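Thread: iron/sulfur cluster complex, take 2
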Amino acid sequence: MTSKIIPRTHFWQGNEACAEAAIVSGCRFFAGYPITPASEIGEHLAWRLPQVGGIAVQMEDEIASLGAVVGASWAGAKAMTATSGPGFSLMQELIGYAFMTETPCVVVDVQRTGPSTGQATKGGQGDVMQARWGTHGDYASIALSPNSVQEMFDLTIRAFNLAETYRTPVVLLADEIIAHMREQIIIPQSDQITIINRKKPKPTDKAFFNGEDVAPMPSVGEGYNVPITGSTHNEYGYRFTADRAVHKQLVESLIGKVRNNSEKIVDYESNNFDDCDVGIVSFGCTSRAVYETVDLAKKKGVTVGFVRLKTIWPFPEEAVRNIAKNAKVIIVPELNMGEVFYEVERVVHGYVPVIPLNKIGGGEMITPEELLAKIIESVKKVD
Amino acid sequence: MTEAFTSRKYLRDMSLPFCVGCGCVTVINHFLRAVHELGHKDLSKFVFCSGIGCAGWIPSPYFKADSIHTPHGRSIPVATGVKLLRSDLNVVVFGGDGDIAGIGMGHLVHAARRNLDITVVMVNNMIYGMTGGQVAPTTPIGTKTTTTPYGSFEQPLDVTRLVVAAGASFVARWTTAHGEQLKESLKKAVATKGFAFVEAVSPCPTAFGRRAGFKDVAETFRWYRDNSVPLEETEKMTVEELTSKIAVGEYVDRKIPTFTETIFKTIREAKKSEKTN
Ligand SMILES: Cc1ncc(C[n+]2csc(CCOP(=O)(O)OP(=O)(O)O)c2C)c(N)n1
Ligand code: SF4
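Output below.
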C-alpha cells in the first residue's frame, strides 16, 4: 500500500477502516495498549503512520496511552487511542481531564463482553453508559456508534471533526462484530471528504478556555505561555480551586458546548412510518438485524419503523420522541442487560410502552427471528 | 552570561502557594538558576508537565511558560506525547515522590527504560504533603504519619537507583542542603539527551518535619547534611550503615541512544524501504 489510500471500493476489516480514516482525518499520533478486539487499529497505525510522517507508540498501559494522546494534542497533533472495555475503564481518568482541559482527541472503544475480563474475544454493547458517565463529575459526552465497515470509516472522520470543532474527547463506540467483520467500503475522492481543524488563536489572544463559543486552541511551544490544568480554571487557564462562580461558569460552558450544539451533533437513521405498529430503537451491530426484521414483520402484517442511533451521546431525543408518537410500542434490542433502553424510557416518558430485548454472552448477535418474535409478542401485549 | 540572575524573569507575577520553609521554593530557585546559567533568557524553549501534589504546583501556573498540570501521576505520559511531537523543546516534569514514584511509578520506569528525552525532577519530601502527611513510598521505616500512626512498617523505595537500573541517561540525587550541586545537576539534566532524573530530597515542615521530630527547617537541613553520604563513599558501607542515610551524587551520566533518536531513525528507515520496495 502506498502512503495514500486509493479512492475506490475496498474490502476491509472494520478496524482497518477506522485506522485508515484516522489518517485521512489528519491524525498523526497514536498511542495505545494492545487489547482484543481493538488491537488491529494500533497495529495498522504502527505500520501506516510512519509512512505519512506520523508516530505510533505502544505505551505501558491505557492511562499512559491517553496521557500521551493528550500531550500530543496540545503539541498540535490530531491524536487517537483505541481500546476495549478494560482499557476504556482505565482511560476514564484522562477522559475527564481531556474534557476539563478542552483537549481534542478520539478514543475508540471496541466493545467486548464485560464486566471485567468477561469474554475477551466476544462482542457486546455494555459500555454505552460508561461512554456517557464513565468519568467523575459533571460533564457531557460525544459518542458515535458505527454499524458497518463503511461507518467505521465515516464516523471515525466525524469523530475527529467533532473533537476539533468542540475541543473535547470524542468516543467512537464500536463493537467487536463491526470491528472484525469485512465488507465493502467506498473511499470517496479526498475533495468529497470534509476535514475540520481546530481554531487557532491570533497572536494577541490570551483566553484559551471556557469561552462562550469554543475558545481558540494554541499549542505548546508557540509562545502563548498557556497554563493547562484539570483543576477548575478561568479563561486564561489559572487555577481557581475554591471560587464557586468560576467553577460554575467553567463547567456550564464545557457542558454547554455539547448541549447547545446537540442538534448539530446528533445523527441517526430512521424509517419512521406515520402509523406503525412497532418502533425499534437500535444502534451498532444490533441494528443490522433490524432491516431484515422490518421485511419479515411486513409479511406477518406488522408495520415496523425504526430509529438507528449514529450518535448515542448526545442522545437523539427528538428522533426517539417522534417514533414514540407514531408507534404503539417501542422495542430496544441491545447486547447488554439494558442501557439504551433506560434512555429511551426516559425520553418516551410513558407515552407508549418500551420493551427491552437483551442478549448477552458468546458474542452472539440478536437475530431477525428473535427480534421478530419480540415484535409479535409485544404487538399482542398492547392490542 | 552578563545578565544577572533574577527568578522574576521566569516567574509570573503571583505569590507562590508553598508553606514557609517548603523545599519546593528552594527547588524552583535552583532550577531557574540552572536555566539562567544555561543561557535561557526566558522559558520559551520549555514545556513543563506536572501532576498533583505540592511539587506539582512548581511550574503550574507560576512559570512564565507553557505548563500542563495533569492528573495525579500522569505527567510523564503527557510529557511523552509532547516530546514526540516537539522534540525541539525541553520537556521538564516536576512532581512529588508520591506523584512520580507512587501512583506514577509505572510511567517513570517505562520512560527511563525508553530513555525518553525529558527531565524529571522529583521533589522527595518523603511524605504526601498536599493531602496532609500520609505515608509515601519513600517514607523512612518507623516514621509516624497520619496513615501509619504507630510508625511506618514498609521499606522505602530508592527511586534514584531504580531509575538508574531502568536505563536513564543521567541520574542524580541531592538534598536541598546541597544547593550548588543540585543546581549543577539540574543544568546537566536539562542539557542531557535522553532521560534525566534528579531527585531533590526536600523539607516539608508542615506534613513531615513535625512528625519526624524536626523543630524547624534548619534542623531538617542539619539532618540532611549529617546523614548525606557522597555516593563514592557508600561502596565501602554495609547495608546497616546505609540505612537512613541519603546517598548523594551523580549516579550516571552516559551516552546511550535516546527514544526520539531511535524512533525517528526507525521512521526514516521505514520510509526509505517503502520507496525502494
Ligand atoms: C487519583 C488521585 N488519587 C489521590 C489524589 C489525592 N492526592 C493529591 S496530592 C497527593 C499526594 C501528594 O504527595 P506527593 O506526590 O509526594 O507531593 P507533595 O504534595 O508531597 O509535594 C494525593 C494522594 C488525587 N488527587 N488523585
Ligand atoms: S505541605 Fe509540605 S510540601 Fe506542601 S507546601 Fe507545605 S511544606 Fe511544602
